[in-house]
Amino acid sequence: MSDEELRGASLKIYLHLLLANEPRGVRDLSRDLGIPVSTVHYHIKKLREAGLIRELPEGYVVSRRVRIEGFVYLGRKLVPRLAIYSAFFLGVAAGLVGVTILWGNVNVDRLIAVTSSAISSALTALEARRVSKNLAS
């Protein structure tokens, strides 16, 4: 299994292990993800053969991180790339509001910039949320 082939139940199991704070057993994964135990066994075998997970006495853990399209790693967290863009636009909007308050110079250009930055932040945040939900399902 190459990194590009990680999808479906294998992806769900991999992500669940990646985000877990502790090793997870086959029955735990089956219960948490609503996947039959036999299916979990099959995908665990594929993930182990690919070197993506390893078995500890307590259960399975991720042994190698893979690149997941549209996401970046921030520490242990897997974050949608769009969430970073959303934070950037929110920062721009907040900075413009701060400058406007500090200088007391409200004009149409600044209002348009604040509004467009705020709308861009909201839209990218909503899209990041949608992408996250789609990845988990």
Model description:
With 137 residues, the chain is mostly helical. It folds into two domains: 3-62, Winged helix-like DNA-binding domain superfamily/Winged helix DNA-binding domain (Arc Repressor Mutant, subunit A, Orthogonal Bundle); 71-136. Helix content is 62%, strand content 12%. It is built from five helices and four strands. It has helices at residues 8-19, 26-33, 37-49, 81-103, 108-136, and strands at 53-56, 59-62, 71-74, 77-80. The strands form two sheets. Strands 1-2 form a two-stranded antiparallel ribbon. A hairpin with a 2-residue loop joins strand 1 and strand 2. The chain starts with 7 loop residues before the first helix and ends with a helix. The model has no long low-confidence stretch (mean pLDDT 89).
Q: How does the overall form come out from the CA principal axes?
A: elongated
Order of SSEs: HHHEEEEHH
Alpha carbon gap, first and last residue: 20 Å
User: Domains counted in the coordinates: how many?
Assistant: 2
Q: How many alpha or pi helices?
A: 5
Beta content: 5-15%
Largest sheet: 2 strands, antiparallel
Compact overview of the structure:
This protein is mainly alpha-helical and 137 residues long.
Secondary structure: elements and pairs:
Blueprint: H1 8-19, H2 26-33, H3 37-49, E1 53-56, E2 59-62, E3 71-74, E4 77-80, H4 81-103, H5 108-136
Antiparallel strand pairs: 1-2, 3-4
